[in-house]
Each structure stands twice: as structure tokens, then as C-alpha cells.
């Protein structure tokens, strides 16, 4: 019986050694699998960090672009405001120009009428045989202008300085 027990113990010891060896091999394989999985996860983490960094760079780039476009938009608004002011000023100048042109046309008409009357007075003076001096003609013209031409002052327009 003792021998049976020794054989059984020896057999059990052998099985235990085999089980330990199998467990060791299985543990090593399991450890290798886990280490491999850790390396895979580390690589994925590295890739995700790189993509995250790239995404942050992209966001910053777009933020800068938004700031640039906002500034450009503000500048465009300022320019548009200035252009509107200039357009209003140009319209005002054009209205003044049209008014002055109209006044000039009226003044030219009055000057033509005055010249015509001066010529009539000269013709009458020649017909009647009276010799009028240039001063008399100028006097008649000045009288007519002061009567029919309401503009007075140091810049009194005449046909000579209008043309």
C-alpha cells in the first residue's frame, strides 16, 4: 500500500508539475496577449492624441480666419459708410452745379438781351445822327443791368468774364 501511495503521489506530483507547466505556458501566453493589447492601445492613444492635436490646430486656424473675416467685414462697413458720405456729398455738389448752371444760363440770356438793347440804342443814336460816346453806351447798359439784373456785388458777372 505504501508503494501504491508512493506511485500515486509520484503520479500526482507529475500531474501537478504538468499542470504548473501548462499554467505557466498559458499564463505566459495570456501575459503576451495582454502586453500585445497594451501596445495596441498605446498606439491607438498616440494616434488619437495626434488627431486631437491636429483638430486643435485646425480650430485655431479657423478661429484666426473668423477674426480676419470679422475685421475685414468691419473695414468694409467703414468703407461703405465713407462711400455713402461721399455719394451724398457728390449729389449735393451736383445739385449746386445744376443750380449755378441754371443761374449762368439765365445770366447769359439777360446779358444777350442787354447787349441787344445796347446795339439798338447804338443803332438809334446813329440813325438820329447823334454821336454817343462809349461812355454814354456804357451808362445805358449799366442802367439797364441795374434795373433788370438783380445780382449785385463785387463778382458782378458780365459777358466778358462769363465766356
From TrEMBL:
PANTHER family: CINGULIN-LIKE PROTEIN 1-RELATED, MYOSIN-6-LIKE. Residues 2-51, 83-124 form a coiled coil. Its main location: cytoplasm. The keyword Coiled coil applies. Keywords: Coiled coil, Cytoplasm, Motor protein, Myosin. It comes from Merluccius polli (Benguela hake). The gene is MYSS_31. This is Myosin heavy chain, fast skeletal muscle. It is found in: Cytoplasm.
